[in-house]
Amino acid sequence: MHSMIDRIGGEPQVERLVNHFYDLIETLPQGAAIMAMHQRGHGLRHVRPEQFDFLCGFFGGRRYYHERHGHMNLREIHVHLEIRQQDAEDWLAVMERAMVETGVTDRERAEIMATFRRAALMLVNRG
């Protein structure tokens, strides 16, 4: 069985997905709270490369994020943020739209979204 990164089109597709996701985050009303969260946190400049690095490993490719940071612990990565259920839902909705608009197929998208949903809801730490 091929890894998810191979199934969706490799690192070039991960890069397209991350860039389109953040283009949407920066322009859609659903992205406003997530944008504000990044600005209160470590700022916006690092988020695209960090998410690219993380998702490559998450999808079964090279673990760039782990190589640079020594872990891929989502809770640790987001510990400095207050994340509400609505923030998680907004993130998931925008990511699903980004996957649709960058051509991730239905089967792969369904698998990825199921995993993303579990991960996003695990990060909720505010009512």
Give the topology string: H per helix, E per strand. Answer: HHHHHHHH
Q: What's the gyration radius in Å?
A: 14 Å
The second-level CATH architecture is Orthogonal Bundle
Tally of separate helices: 8
Morphology? globular
N-end to C-end Cα span: 40 Å
The secondary structure category is mainly alpha
What percent strand? under 5%
* Topology, number of strands: 0
Q: CATH top level?
A: Mainly Alpha
- Provide the number of structural domains: 1
Mean pLDDT: 94
Please summarize the sheet with the most strands.
none
Instruction: Kindly identify the CATH topology.
Output: Globin-like
Low-confidence runs (pLDDT<50, min 5 residues)? none
Helical residues, percent: over 70%
CATH superfamily: Globins
Structure description:
- The chain is mainly alpha-helical.
- It has one domain: Globin-like.
- 70% of the residues lie in helices and 0% in strands.
- It is built from 8 helices and no strands.
- The protein is globular.
- The model has no long low-confidence stretch (mean pLDDT 94).
What would the keywords be for this entry?
single chain; 127 residues; mainly alpha; Globin-like; globular
Provide a concise account of the structure shown:
The protein has 127 residues and is mainly alpha-helical.
